[in-house]
């Protein structure tokens, strides 16, 4: 592969005169905030969209891609953010889909398919059992399945679109290993992301984009996360100075919560914790160790088998969601698409949720749409959400904007207890900074905040105290000064603080 | 000015899809008419003249549309919340049967009897659909199945009563109840035409449902439950309460559909009167075509009723079987469900979203 050059500029200016070169066995990172034009650029390379001007060259030959099939023929593959797999089929079946090996003209050769897939998986060190059924696979494995699909189509250039957005930290690590293996085996990789630590960890070179424009191309070894993020955002990102917390009286007290799941599998094995006024309390832990269930039990979406929960002096165990919310609790859920909103509801409908029984928006069962519209417009303005009208659908917003909308909705309750789960998953640096500042502001106003995040950096930055969850119980409690990635990490893996 | 423009735009959004589907359905119908050996243009002209464009037939169509329209509202009310109520036929049967019995047998002043009849009928319809909600809640019996099966139960139980204990013995052949008193019938608007107040009651129900759907907390909560039950639950919406109220509302509306037909046209409950006419299913079609929007469902119901009336009339005047009209109706439904439109719509929506995002970035 010599190089790909691509120049184009169009009226709407999603991409403005972008150049991109990729060498063999190279990992090139393309970074930029949401809306910087990274995805558009990649869609053009993958034939999903057509450039207004500019050309694509592969190995010195000019190429015109009418559609992704053309791009695939030229050896370009893309691992999409949303997997395109058939859940009830096995890994092998999914991978060969479209190019199945056949016994005769009509018969699918299952054995050969499996052998080919296994061979491929072996060669690139993907380590995936091709007999597994896709719907039983965790997200990380499903992604490997996508990668194998691209490899099966003989791609030499593989584009990864925000591959880590859906993964747990452990899965991210193994993804990065996979990327390194692929590059070693001679594949060229383009990694689109806004997670800079991943860029620093695997890439050789890095292209920074902002507002559709090419800002800089730098060798990864010659730059730093700080420099990159400044280039991405267009200004220096200042680490917020976090003032000392001044905790007041206890707002939330959870005592000895026990919950057994389906088939008698224990989920919570006696959790106790408390959150005070003016304090951010973090819960660290590898996801799937009971954090979600703990939060769901507190907000009333789930009932515990035993133990009690006291919010603002009132026992709320066994109450329904609405009563708990009215006692003084707001909740930013970890999954904004399945719980935080309805994608087909309008923005105002999404923002009204859990406010619909408040007197401000509701007069004897009749909703006050006008008041709501005024209030929501102001709120969205304040939270810097980019939208066109309140009647557009939530699913039309970008992930970061939707997250800001949900945060705005929950924070506007000014509840005594704010529960925040994965507040910045999949949002860009600007939005992340903003959401962090809002959380800190809520703390300064005396709010009690319970924060769950799989992003340890975020957790350590914001939390005044950290509980570490492991296998359904609290495996340790650390104050801000004591909490370091190392000791939190040990507790997360089930070790003890004295190790 | 902008208000009018917005309203027009809103109406267009609600109505463009049924209109397009109707147009394509008519084209398929034209092909069939050609095959049968007639001129589709003259047939369509006759059909529209004898359904909408002469007063006599227009009134006939509007009269026919009443039960269909109200049934479509019953569907809209429940399906919007995600509860697939296929039992509108059964609920209208039970509800109007009870309503008729009260009207026929209850002593007292006319006014009181009418109110009692309407209330009892609506309660019976609501109770009948609530039973389906109850067995779903307690025993996890799918609402789709239970409501569908309860249609048969309703038909045969009412048939039993009017065949034996409650039969009007003055007629030897017809299996039916006694007639309701003259004073209780819905007043006719024009002398000599069956068109009656029922149509305006149906329109009032459209407006009422529109209000419930768009302005009330209940309408909001049931729509959210339909769009994403997890989201609704997260926001403190009590799922079972929404289910019971939605199903009750749907059943009560279905009962109204039956009672409007009886109090306006038939004046008595006749054996399997709603099964043979298929009002509930035409209403279901209307609701689906219009994307479960009350106003859209209203217009579509009137159109489908006109198609039925026009279809019967072309059979009388040209000999083309009424089934052709049914065929046109069915192709309209198919065209509505064709994924093509959905994708096209999605694309234009995505484009609009992309434009708005770009606009926001500036």
Could you give a short description of this structure?
By secondary structure, chain A is an alpha/beta fold. Chain A has helices at residues 38-45, 68-73, 91-96, 110-123, 139-152, 169-184, 196-202, 225-233, 291-299, 321-328, 336-340, 347-352, 369-382, 399-411, 429-444, 456-462, 485-492; strands spanning 27-31, 56-58, 61-63, 76-79, 157-161, 188-193, 205-210, 213-219, 250-260, 266-276, 279-284, 306-311, 314-315, 329-332, 362-363, 366-367, 417-421, 448-452, 465-470, 473-479.
Number of helices of chain A: 17
Radius of gyration of chain B: 22 Å
- Most extensive interface, residues per chain? A-B, 41 and 30 residues
Shape of chain B: globular
Provide the succession of SSEs of chain B: HHHHHHHHHHHHHHH
Helix content of chain A: 25-40%
Q: Unreliable stretches of chain B, pLDDT < 50, 5 or more residues?
A: 352-362
What spatial form of chain A do the alpha-carbon principal axes imply? globular
Which CATH architecture of the largest domain in chain A? 3-Layer(aba) Sandwich
The CATH superfamily of the largest domain in chain A bears the name P-loop containing nucleotide triphosphate hydrolases
Placed side by side, the strands forming the largest sheet of chain A appear as 4-5-6-1-7-8
Q: Strand pairing plus helix content of chain A: what structural class?
A: alpha/beta
Examine the coordinates and then state which fold CATH places here, giving the name of the CATH topology of the largest domain in chain A.
Rossmann fold
Instruction: Return the CATH class of the largest domain in chain A.
Output: Alpha Beta
What distance lies between the first and last C-alpha atoms of chain A, to the nearest angstrom? Answer: 51 Å
What is the CA–CA distance across the termini of chain B?
Answer: 29 Å
């Amino acid at each position: 592969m010599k190089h790909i050059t691509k120049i184009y500029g169009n009226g709407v200016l999603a991409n403005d005169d972008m150049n991109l070169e990729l060498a063999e066995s190279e990992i090139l990172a393309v970074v930029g905030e949401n809306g910087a034009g990274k995805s558009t650029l990649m869609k053009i390379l993958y034939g999903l969209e057509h450039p207004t001007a500019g050309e694509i060259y592969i190995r010195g030959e000019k190429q015109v891609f009418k559609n992704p099939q053309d791009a695939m023929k030229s050896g370009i593959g893309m691992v999409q953010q949303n997997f395109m797999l058939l859940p009830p089929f096995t890994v092998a079946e999914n991978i060969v889909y479209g190019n199945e090996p056949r016994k005769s003209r009509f018969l699918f050769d299952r054995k050969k398919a499996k052998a080919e897939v296994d061979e491929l998986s072996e060669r690139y060190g993907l380590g995936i059992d091709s007999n597994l059924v896709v719907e039983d696979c965790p997200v990380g494995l499903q992604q490997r399945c996508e990668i194998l699909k691209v490899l099966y189509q003989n791609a030499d250039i593989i584009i990864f679109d925000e591959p880590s957005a859906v993964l747990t930290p452990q899965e991210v690590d193994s993804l990065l290993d996979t990327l390194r293996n692929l590059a070693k085996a001679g594949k060229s990789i383009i990694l689109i992301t806004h997670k800079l630590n991943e860029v620093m960890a695997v890439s050789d070179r890095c292209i920074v984009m902002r507002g559709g424009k090419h800002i800089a191309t730098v060798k990864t070894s010659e730059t730093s996360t700080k420099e990159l993020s400044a280039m991405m955002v267009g200004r220096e990102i200042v680490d917020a100075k976090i003032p000392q917390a001044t905790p007041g009286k206890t707002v939330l007290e959870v005592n000895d919560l026990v919950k057994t799941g389906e088939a008698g599998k224990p989920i919570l094995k006696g959790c106790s914790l408390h959150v005070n006024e003016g304090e951010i309390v973090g819960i660290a832990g590898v996801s799937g160790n009971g954090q979600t269930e703990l939060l769901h039990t507190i907000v009333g979406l789930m009932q515990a088998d035993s133990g009690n929960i006291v919010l603002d002096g009132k026992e709320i165990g066994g109450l329904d969601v609405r009563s708990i919310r009215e006692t003084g609790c707001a909740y930013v859920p970890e999954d904004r698409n399945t719980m935080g909103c309805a994608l087909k509801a309008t923005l105002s409908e999404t923002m009204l949720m859990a406010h619909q029984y408040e007197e401000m928006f509701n007069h004897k069962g009749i909703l006050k749409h006008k008041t709501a519209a005024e209030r929501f417009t102001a709120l969205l303005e304040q939270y810097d959400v980019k939208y066109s009208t309140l009647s557009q659908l939530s699913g039309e917003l970008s992930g970061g904007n939707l997250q800001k909308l949900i945060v705005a909705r929950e924070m506007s309750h000014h509840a005594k207890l704010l529960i925040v789960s994965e507040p910045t998953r999949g949002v860009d640096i600007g939005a992340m900074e903003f959401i962090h500042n809002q959380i800190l502001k809520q703390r300064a106003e005396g709010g009690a905040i319970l924060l769950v995040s799989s992003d340890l950096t975020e957790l350590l930055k914001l939390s005044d105290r950290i509980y570490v969850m492991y296998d359904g119980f609290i495996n340790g409690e650390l104050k801000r000064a004591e909490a370091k990635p190392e000791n939190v990490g040990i507790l997360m893996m089930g070790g003890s603080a004295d190790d | 000015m902008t208000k009018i423009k917005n309203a027009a735009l809103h109406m267009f959004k609600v109505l463009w899809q049924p209109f397009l589907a109707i147009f394509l359905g008519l084209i398929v119908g034209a092909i069939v008419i050609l095959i049968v050996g007639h001129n589709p243009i003259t047939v369509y002209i006759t059909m529209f003249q004898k359904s909408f464009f002469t007063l006599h037939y227009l009134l006939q169509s509007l009269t026919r549309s009443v039960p269909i329209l109200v049934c479509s509202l019953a569907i809209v009310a429940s399906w919007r919340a995600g509860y697939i109520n296929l039992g509108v036929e059964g609920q209208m049967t039970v509800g109007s049967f009870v309503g008729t019995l009260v009207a026929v047998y209850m002593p007292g002043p006319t006014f009181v009897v009418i109110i009692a009849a309407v209330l009892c009928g609506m309660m019976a319809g609501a109770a009948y659909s609530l039973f389906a909600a109850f067995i779903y809640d307690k025993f996890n019996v799918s609402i789709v199945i239970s409501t569908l099966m309860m249609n048969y139960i309703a038909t045969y139980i009412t048939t039993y009563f009017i065949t034996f204990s409650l039969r009007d013995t003055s007629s030897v052949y017809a299996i039916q109840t006694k007639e309701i008193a003259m004073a209780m019938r819905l007043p006719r608007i024009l002398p000599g035409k069956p068109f009656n107040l029922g149509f305006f009651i149906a329109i009032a129900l459209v407006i009422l449902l529109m209000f419930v759907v768009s302005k009330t907390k209940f309408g909001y909560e049931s729509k959210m439950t339909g769009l994403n039950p997890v989201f609704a639950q997260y926001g403190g919406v009590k799922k079972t309460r929404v289910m019971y109220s939605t199903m009750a509302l749907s059943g009560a509306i279905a009962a109204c559909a039956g009672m409007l037909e009886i109090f306006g046209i038939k004046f008595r409950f006749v054996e399997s009167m709603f099964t043979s006419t298929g009002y509930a299913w035409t209403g279901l079609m209307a609701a689906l075509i219009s994307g479960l929007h009350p106003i859209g469902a209203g217009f579509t119901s009137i159109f489908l009723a006109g198609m039925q009336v026009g279809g019967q009339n072309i059979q009388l005047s040209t000999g083309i079987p009424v089934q052709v009209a049914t065929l046109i109706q069915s192709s309209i439904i198919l065209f509505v469900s064709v994924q093509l439109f959905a994708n096209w719509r999605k694309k234009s929506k995505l484009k609009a979203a992309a434009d708005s995002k770009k606009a926001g970035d500036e």
